[in-house]
Amino acid sequence: KVNNNDEHFQIHHTSDFCMEASAFLSNLLKKNVKNAFEGSTLSFLFTRNVCACVHEMTDKALLVVSECPPLGLESLKVKDTQLRASSYKRRGLGPHRGRLNIQSGIEDGDIYDGAWCAQYRDKKQWLEVDARRLTRFTGVILQGRNSIWSWDIVHTYKVQFSNDTLVWKPCMNGTEEAIFEGNQDAETPVLALFNTSTVARYIRINPQSWYQNGTKGHICLRAEVFGCALSVTHVSHFTDPNNKLDFRHHNYKEMRKLMKSVQEECPDITRIYSIGKSYMGLKLYVMEISDNPGKHELGEPEFRYVAGMHGNEVLGRELLLNLMQYICQEYKRGDQRIVHLVKETRIHLLPSMNPDGYEMAFKKGSELAGWSLGRYSYEGIDMNHNFADLNSVMWTAIELETDRSKLINHYFPIPEQYTTEEAFVASETRAVISWMQNIPFVLGANLHGGELVVTYPYDMTRDWAPREHTPTADESFFRWLAVVYASTNQVMSNHDRRPCHNKDFLRYNNIINGADWHNVPGSMNDFSYLHTNCFEVTVELSCDKFPHASELPIEWENNRESLLTYMEQVHRGIKGVVRDKDTGAGIADAVIKVDDINHHIRSVADGDYWRLLNPGEYRVTATAEGYFPSSRTCQVMYDHYPTICDFRLTKMPKERLKELLMKGGKLPKDLQLRLRQLRMRKLRVTTKAINRRPAGLCCCWKEAMMLFAVEFGPVSCRAGKV
What's the sign of the alpha-carbon dihedral 84, 85, 90, 92? Predict the structure, then answer.
């Protein structure tokens, strides 16, 4: 059958599948179903008792996938206690590590290795999965061992089923036991669909041949199993039936269509705009949500979510599409929390920063994309390492400058070599940087996948160490931001969950300094903090980078509260407007300094500013070029709204004079009097100094006299007198 929603070609195999499929596909071609098969060549291959339909596609590829969803070895829906094995070499290679796409640690031999590996090398070894209920099994995906140092893959295997683990029935192909093709490399997932689906509770994967390099080759594999549960005894997650959200994977065209439908449903609070194009010409669309879309309002903070920086980490994309639908629906329903958020915040949602990469992963599908297909841009650039490295600029300046007062700690300029056309910078990265510079964002987060943790800056270690805790001046507030998301996420906050891959983030309460996890030079988080006013964290949403569509409703429930609560943090701290005391006009680029925090922020075009801070009392100073600085004490409370701290700066006399003279105006009487007093004071001091000098030294004062003349008029030197 063809599912028109996700354009996946789904086949249920029968004994005469190949004959039926030929006629069926021919029929489809005549009907031209969505033009899906244009430019494709179909061939049928018979390999080792397995009948398979292979599609050699051009630009409109379809996938042969199971009609049943994965049980959840990769997503951890299948618990460790549901996995058993005939034997295993050691704990780090136990059956609990036999999960599709699981990643090993850097060192072989630790407890986080990259596959299940049998202790013995014979055909009696097996990996067993307990579905915990009767399940109609339809297929298996196999993958080799993930390791930097080892090469272990299974070439062929058998499958058996059981209801009690005592009696096992082999998967048959006619009168013979079916043998399925496995892997030729360690990372490419290989799908095998059963000729006939089988109902059972347990399934075993039984390797028959494997890569043998003398005594070094071992039986190792990672797997996923497809099956439909015959009965569901409980529902672990509740989805509000009032919310009609579109829970499926959306390719570029479908994403654009969904965003347009949201804008049409809520035209008064939404706006769609593009910040640029990908290398392949796909637009980077943003959904703006605000009570006054298209305009920055004085005092209203700007917030952003960015997803899809790595194209194969797709959950963030779908969550942002769900989020824009949810906000629209709840705003229309009158939900006070959502109404307040929309009226007090200007929200920007970029669901796909790397649409080219996503399209590559989407064509393969959720289980067959592997770990890295679509991660990079079309040019092969990892965008999370592609922003200007301002950390090195800052640390180099600290090392070279002896006068600490001359050092800057914010708004670091981008190095010139980074901005040239020849620089190896993705067009998508350039577009996002321009977006950051044009909109005064206060808070943001970028959504990733493949782990369950929230990381905060800095992401780069100071001495290029592989990992080292590298805090910012705002460490305490960044930790708060990370805790806000992690503690409200239903999976991260579950202390009984197991680690995803090779690091147990539960020990850190599911938050970690980015550099303390691994060194990431050129990250978006660090760039945002050092080049703009915006604070940003990274959220790793799921162990599975590309969860099956059936998991999306659950993932929405896991993350909905986290997404909303994190957005609300943009209103924590202080905010205000820096104005000219005389004119009342807002002062742009005023520097806001907080005592004991060596990181400043700046006011924007209208003079408004936002400084994210934890509750407490702070001494805050506002400075601007040509103005006297002004300081005041600001108290940040525990409420969900900011403390107002406005500043009115007095312009310095010289600056005021310049401004008046440039406008051709007359000086105010108070300023005239002040300038006259200042001149007389200078005149008395200078006259006394000159009169004390011997006559012979008069000529040595020529330069001083010239300066004096400029200030007070011409003078003459006669015997040391003026």
Answer: negative
Whole-angstrom distance, CA of residue 622 vs CA of residue 453: 36
Angle at 535 between CA 531 and CA 540, to 5 degrees: 115
Q: What is the pLDDT of residues 681-701, one digit of tens each?
A: 878 887 777 777 665 544 444
Asked if 693 and 620 sit in the same domain, the reply is no
Name the residue among 496, 512, 495 with its Cα closest to residue 451.
Answer: 512
CA distances in angstroms from 290 to 148, 293, 437, 486, listed in the order given: 48, 5, 20, 26
In a domain, 97, yes or no: yes
Q: Measured between alpha carbons, how far is 564 from 349 in angstroms, rounded to an integer? A: 13
- CATH number of the structural domain spanning residue 125: 2.60.120.260
Element (H, E) at 332: helix 315-333
Q: Which of 436, 627, 415 lies closest to 535 in space, CA to CA? A: 436
Terminal Cα-to-Cα distance of the chain (whole angstroms): 106
Pick the closest to residue 578 from 569, 590, 560, 567 (CA basis): 590
In a shared domain, residues 133 and 178: yes
Widest CA span in the chain: 128
d(CA 362, CA 351): 15
Two tokens at 450?
A: 């493949």
Pick from 605, 623, 654: which residue ends a domain? 654
Q: Are 445 and 554 in a shared domain?
A: yes
Q: What's the 3-state SS for 177-238?
A: ECCEECCCCCCCCEEEEEEEEEEEEEEEEEEEEECCCCCCCCCEEEEEEEEEECCCCCCCCC
The residues pairing with 55 across neighbouring beta strands, listed in sequence order, are 42
Helix (H) or strand (E) holding 46: strand 41-47
Four-residue CA torsion sign, 415, 417, 421, 423: negative
What integer is the mean pLDDT of 447-457?
A: 97
Radius of gyration of the CA atoms of the chain, in A: 33
In the predicted model, what is the mean pLDDT of residues 501-528?
95
584 & 634 share domain: yes
CATH number of the domain enclosing 579: 2.60.40.1120
Residues 378 and 519 in one domain: yes
Average the pLDDT over 483-497 and give the result. 94
pLDDT tens-place string over residues 519-544: 999 999 999 999 999 999 999 999 99
Q: Interior CA angle at 612 toward 607 and 616, to 5°?
A: 115
For the record, the structure tokens of 308 come out as: 């899809």
In a domain? residue 241: no
Residue 443 phi, psi dihedral angles, 5° rounding: -145, 150
263-284 burial code (b ≥16 CB/10 A, e <16): beebeebbbbeebeebbeebbb
Q: What is the Cα 456 distance to its own chain's centre?
A: 11
H or E segment at 653?
helix 653-662
Site of tokens 């009570």 = 291
Is 30 a residue whose pLDDT tops 50?
no
CA distance 577 to 561: 31
pLDDT at residue number 231: 72
Above pLDDT 90, what percent of the chain?
71
State whether residue 287 is helix, strand or coil.
Answer: strand
The answer to whether residue 701 is domain-embedded is yes
Last residue of a domain, one of 563, 598, 633: 563
Instruction: Cis check for the bond before 638: say yes or no (omega within 30 of 0).
Output: no
Boundaries of domain holding 319:
275-327+345-396+426-472+513-563
Q: Which residues pair with 409 in a beta bridge?
A: none
Residue type, 112: Y
**Which positions are annotated as active-site residues?**
540
pLDDT attached to residue 58:
30
Asked whether residue 261 is domain-assigned, the answer is no
